[in-house]
Predict the 3D structure of the following.
Amino acid sequence: MSTSEPVDRVLERIAQGDAVAAACSAEGLACQRDVRVDAHYDGKPVCTVTLPWVVDGHALLFADETIAISIAEERLASLAAALVMPVCVIRRPVAA
């Protein structure tokens, strides 16, 4: 995943527990919640996907520790291929 330094800092803040909107505000980046975009296959839209957050043009998804890293990476690759934007996955511990 190729991101800018401000996006990298936002992702780091979120991974440490900051709220997405607060992390974006601290870095001066735009963010949107519940963004609907088309997923594509073979260059054609096949379905609509609702992304929980889009940060400066990057789809932001969350995976908890119950999802194996290999599965999260497969999902990332699949989504990245289907979306017309970079996809970032934040791993979070499961809340007790």
